[in-house]
Write a structure and sequence with these properties.
By secondary structure, this protein is an alpha/beta fold. 39% of the residues lie in helices and 14% in strands. The strands form two sheets. The protein has an eight-stranded parallel sheet.
Length: 311
C-alpha cells in the first residue's frame, strides 16, 4: 500500500487534531478529495481464514449509529476508500441505507464481506428465518457473508438451528455470535452442529478480554472488536501512553489502537462519518508495534466495560 510520510516535527495524535499538521494533513486531504478511487492507491487489507474456511478481512467498517443518507454515503465512500468488510445489524435500523451504500459503490458483490445480526426480539427458529430474509431484502442482497446472534438472550438454540440450515443452504457463508461469554458459548455448543466462526465483543485497550481471547483461539474462534476505540471513552484518544507510542511511529492514536488489534489477531470494525478518518483508519499496515509497545498497551487494561448501559 502507499505509505504517507510525515515530515513535521510533531505528530498530532488526537482524533480531531490529526488533520491539522503539515504534510500529513495535506496528503490526507488530497487523498480524501481523490477518494482513493485509483485501484493502485487502495490499501491491501489482510484476510484471516475462519473456522469454516471463509476468508474475512481483518479490518472493516462499522455502521452503528449511522442512519439515512449519511449512512449510505459513508458506506459507499468506505468501499471506495478500500474497505471490503461492512458490518450492520437489524437493531441499528440502517440495513436499507447500508444496502443502498453498497449498491452506490458500484463494487462487485463478490468482493465484499457483509455482516448483519439477529436481534433478541427475533430469536427462535421461525422468527430467525423470517428476520434473516427481511435483512436480505433490506440490504438488497442474495446472501450474507456472516450472520451473528447479537445477544445471548431468548431462544438462542432455535435461532442457531435456523442459522445452521441457512448456512448449509448457502444463504450465509459463515455464522457466529456476539457478546457471548464462555458459559453462554458452551451452552450454545451443547446443542449445535456448527461451531461459531466469530464472537464479536467489546474489546479495546481498556477492556482487552485476554482470557476470552485465549479460550476463543483455543476453540478456533476468531474474536472481533466492536467499539475498537471504546468510542473515545475514558480519554482513549488523549491517553499519554498511546500518544507516546503514536508519536514514536509517526502515527495517530487511532492507527496505533487499530494496529494493536491487528497484531493481537482481532478483527476490528471502526466506525466514522468522517471521510478523512475512514482513510486514516486504513493506514495501519505500513508499520508494526514493538514488543515493548504491545506490553505497554497491555498495562492499560482495566478489565471493565466502558458501556455499562449496554450490558
Amino acid at each position: 500500500m502507499m505509505q504517507i510520510k510525515n515530515n513535521s516535527r510533531a505528530v498530532a495524535t488526537s482524533r480531531r487534531a490529526v488533520l491539522k499538521g503539515g504534510a500529513f494533513a495535506a496528503a490526507t486531504l488530497a487523498f480524501s478529495r481523490l477518494g482513493w478511487a485509483s485501484h493502485d492507491h487502495q490499501p491491501s487489507i489482510p484476510q484471516v481464514r475462519l473456522s469454516d474456511r471463509v476468508m474475512m478481512p481483518t479490518l472493516g467498517f462499522g455502521t452503528y449509529g449511522l442512519k439515512g443518507d449519511l449512512c449510505t454515503e459513508s458506506v459507499a465512500d468506505a468501499i471506495t476508500a478500500g474497505y471490503r468488510l461492512i458490518d450492520t445489524a437489524h437493531v441499528y435500523q440502517n440495513e436499507e441505507a447500508v444496502g443502498a451504500g453498497i449498491k452506490k459503490s458500484g463494487i462487485d458483490r463478490k468482493h465484499l464481506f457483509v455482516t448483519s445480526k439477529i436481534w433478541v426480539d427475533d430469536s427462535g427458529y421461525e422468527l430467525a428465518k423470517r428476520a434473516f430474509q427481511t435483512t436480505l431484502d433490506k440490504l438488497q442482497l442474495e446472501y450474507l457473508d456472516l450472520y451473528l446472534i447479537h445477544r445471548p438472550r431468548g431462544d438462542v438454540q432455535g435461532s442457531w438451528r435456523a442459522m445452521e440450515e441457512l448456512h448449509v443452504a448457502g444463504k450465509i457463508r459463515a455464522i457466529g455470535v456476539s457478546n457471548f461469554d464462555k458459559a453462554q458459548f458452551a451452552s450454545l455448543m451443547a446443542g449445535a452442529s456448527t461451531k461459531p466462526a466469530i464472537n464479536q465483543v467489546e474489546t479495546h485497550p481498556f477492556l482487552q478480554e485476554k482470557e476470552q481471547f485465549e479460550w476463543l483461539r483455543a476453540d478456533g474462534v476468531r474474536m472481533e472488536a466492536w467499539a475498537p476505540f471504546a468510542e473515545g471513552r475514558s480519554g482513549l484518544f488523549t491517553n499519554p501512553a498511546l500518544e507516546e507510542i503514536a508519536k514514536k511511529h509517526s502515527k495517530t492514536v487511532a492507527q496505533v489502537v487499530l494496529r494493536w488489534h491487528h497484531q493481537r489477531g482481532v478483527v476490528a470494525i471502526p466506525r466514522s462519518s468522517n471521510p478523512e478518518h475512514r482513510r486514516e483508519n486504513l493506514c495501519i499496515f505500513d508499520f508494526s508495534l514493538t514488543a515493548d509497545d504491545m506490553n505497554r498497551i497491555s498495562t492499560l487494561d482495566e478489565n471493565r466495560s466502558q458501556f455499562p448501559e449496554w450490558t
